[in-house]
Design brief:
688 residues
Length: 688
């Protein structure tokens, strides 16, 4: 273990004495708890024992000899870190809001459960050797113990104020640490694992501190036995797509020296080669893990309990209030200025993501913390203004990204065959698709709107209004998407005009934001969501709440930010052939039919940067009536949401464009490409 980053070292030096004192205080407090008089003491004993266990664990892993134990021993120690939040331990864990509510009542149970959930960030602090954050957590625990047990304070709002005060008192230093982790290549806690250890010895997996499950183990074994040529091919596809994204978006690599890599534990054998590719370009790779279990946590491993994450999806209500948001935003502005140089040298994100987990159907629980209107508005404001702060020092046209996806072993017995098929999909001939997609774009440039319908039980019936062009020779409405920022190849996309966009979008079953949706229906009026539902739960109220919380929160409505036509019928048939359609990630799934993105366009903060297709035409549909507000009311321009919803070819009826005279252009009829020059896309259907 090591901490070489100067920011971490400085923070640790500041915190060292108080950290040691607070550890002794917790140890002394636990020693005095030989007699448990009430449920609150039992709670604090349990939480204190967790903190003490983690403090002792940090001392263990500081000695590199710890990792000389055999694999099974280390696996047991890894799972011990998560035993109270995995099943069956979660059922009687204070982290479980339902369990806590049975002991303390709903409101106090929610509060103490949210605190226990927050304390679990300690695992990440230990593996990153963040003594400052450990000290802060110790002090929060001790302050709450004194308030609840010693003083008998059980008024939840008073305790929330205590948490809020604690979280903002060292806001600037805490945010400096977080921005270091997100933007500085000197943060090498995780990235050095790829470079520094024998990847044939799978004990390296335990150096992250992340949960190591069957997927990580099987994945590491499989990737380890791949030929060096195959690993290099996968790495090259990934890094070359990243570089093509810069050329496509007109972003210069000059002055860039870092790239944030995102990958799943077990793929280090491929990442090592990708690191070499990036370093030859003068880019230092570094990895980052979001400790608060975000939807995309950057470093990827099996989530020990997806229901737990769902239970705590709104637990930030624990500390959200006006004073917290204002203090954190002010501190963020100051910290952002400190990172202007790092941000200017940051080239972007290279995401190597995975798919294949079983779709997750969460259970609604009455005890879960939720947002009221006030905290929902505060959460939206915080997200929006943080985005604006980041954009000041790192405009959207100053960096790029790429996303690649590969299957997890949990996808099933045909994992290896699916893996090879995914390599094929990710390396399809770009020139062929670019030519076919140009044909589709030329046809769509002649129409004013597109009408999309479903079939075989899909009730989609939606009209999508398109931006007009004034220069037929120099402008186009759709971007021709090849394998650069989004691998694999295979879509044309645009930002719809909101006025005139209306109708029903329906998908029988789809997997979005780590959750399954059955019979998802979304109605649009003037380009904005008017109504929505699904059939996951017994009551309409539950279904509507599920859609809103999962796809729209904290907003009451969202615009239709993107319309695209996927052309990758090879990927579609891969899903059909292996029976994994519902497990395909958005990245691949969006290429297997038309897709509609609710939320922002694809051009957030980069609308004024010209984008050209390979034929030299400028793609002008980069904004809509909402995002153009960035010029006058930037706080109203963006939703910070973008969720792609795809209608698969087997549910798709027709896609037909209409011009101002009512003349039509048929792109797809009855789920098959009908436009002359696109017939080759139907061949994979015929090869079934």
């Amino acid at each position: 273990m090591r901490t070489t980053n100067p920011t971490f070292q400085e923070a640790n030096t500041i915190a060292m004495d108080r950290y040691k004192e607070s550890c002794l205080e917790i140890k002394s407090l636990l020693a005095d708890m030989s007699q448990i008089d009430n449920s609150y003491e039992a709670y604090f004993k349990n939480q204190g024992q967790f903190l003490l266990m983690m403090q002792e664990h940090m001392l263990e892993i500081e000695d590199d000899a710890y990792f000389d134990h055999d694999f099974e021993w280390l696996l047991g120690k890894n799972h011990m870190l998560y035993e109270d939040v995995t099943e069956p331990g979660y059922q009687t864990s204070y982290v479980n809001p339902s369990y806590a509510a049975t002991i303390f009542g709903k409101e106090m149970g929610q509060f103490l459960s949210a605190v226990a959930y927050k304390l679990r960030e300690y695992v990440g602090y230990v593996y990153e050797q963040r003594l400052f954050d450990m000290k802060e957590t110790n002090d929060l625990y001790l302050a709450l113990y004194h308030a609840v047990v010693v003083e008998g304070q059980t008024e939840v709002e008073v305790l929330r104020q205590l948490v809020r005060h604690h979280m903002v008192q060292s806001a600037k230093l805490a945010l400096t640490i977080e921005w270091t982790r997100r933007f500085s290549p000197t943060f090498d806690v995780y990235s050095h694992i790829v470079d520094s250890y024998d990847l044939e010895d799978l004990r390296y997996l335990f150096r992250y501190g992340l949960f190591v499950g069957d997927n990580e183990i099987a994945q590491a074994k499989y990737v380890g036995q791949l030929s060096e040529d195959k690993k290099q091919k996968i790495a090259d596809t990934y890094t070359e797509a990243y570089i093509r994204g810069f050329a496509r978006n007109g972003v210069s690599l000059k002055g860039k020296n870092s790239v944030q890599v995102v990958y799943s534990l077990g793929f280090e054998g491929v990442m090592k080669k990708a690191y070499n590719n990036f370093e030859k370009l003068g880019l230092q790779p570094f990895a980052y893990f979001h400790l608060r279990t975000a939807q995309r946590p950057r470093l990827i491993s099996t989530r020990p309990n997806r229901q737990m994450i769902y239970d705590h999806r709104f637990s930030d209500a624990l500390y959200l209030d006006e004073a917290y948001v204002s203090t954190m935003l002010k501190a963020s502005e100051e910290v952002a200025e400190m990172f202007a140089k790092d941000a200017g040298a940051f080239s972007g994100l290279a995401l190597f993501e995975v798919f294949g987990d079983e779709p997750f159907q969460p259970k609604n629980k009455d005890a879960n913390m939720s947002h009221d209107q006030k905290t929902a508005e505060l959460a939206a404001r915080y997200t929006r203004e943080m985005s604006m702060i980041t954009n000041k020092i790192m405009p959207g046209d100053s960096y790029s990204f790429t996303i690649n996806d590969y299957p997890l072993p949990s996808i099933g017995e045909q994992y290896e065959a699916i893996f090879d098929a995914t390599i094929e999909v990710n390396t399809l001939e770009e020139a062929l698709y670019e030519k076919i997609q140009s044909t589709i774009i030329d046809a769509l440039d002649e129409v004013d709107y597109v009408h999309v319908t479903g079939r075989d039980g899909n009730k989609t019936d939606i009209k999508v209004a398109l931006m007009p062009i004034s220069d037929e020779k120099g402008q186009t409405k759709f971007a021709n998407c090849t394998a650069d920022v989004n691998v694999p190849v295979g879509e044309v996309y645009t930002s719809p005009v909101l006025a005139g966009t209306e109708g029903l979008l329906h998908v029988k079953e789809v997997y979005l934001t780590d959750r399954t949706f059955k019979d998802l229906k979304i109605w649009f009026e003037e380009g904005m969501i008017k109504d929505y539902t699904c059939s996951n739960f017994e009551t309409e109220a539950e279904n509507k709440a599920y859609v809103k919380e999962s796809l729209m929160h904290p907003h009451d409505t969202l615009p239709l930010g993107e319309f695209a036509i996927g052309t990758n019928t090879v990927a579609y048939m891969m899903g059909r052939r292996f029976g994994i359609q519902e497990k395909l990630p958005i990245l691949i799934g969006e290429k297997t039919g038309p897709h509609f993105a609710i939320g922002d366009t694809c051009f957030t903060w980069a609308e004024d940067t010209a984008l050209y297709n390979s034929n030299g035409k400028e793609m002008i549909a980069r904004e809509n009536e909402k995002t153009c507000l960035r010029k006058t009311s930037p706080e109203k321009a963006y939703t910070n949401k973008h969720t792609d919803i795809t209608i698969p070819y087997d549910e798709l009826g027709d896609i037909v464009g209409y011009d101002e005279n009512g003349d039509s252009v048929e792109i797809i009829l009855n789920g098959r490409f009908a436009l002359p020059g696109t017939e080759v896309l139907n061949r994979p259907f015929d090869e079934e």
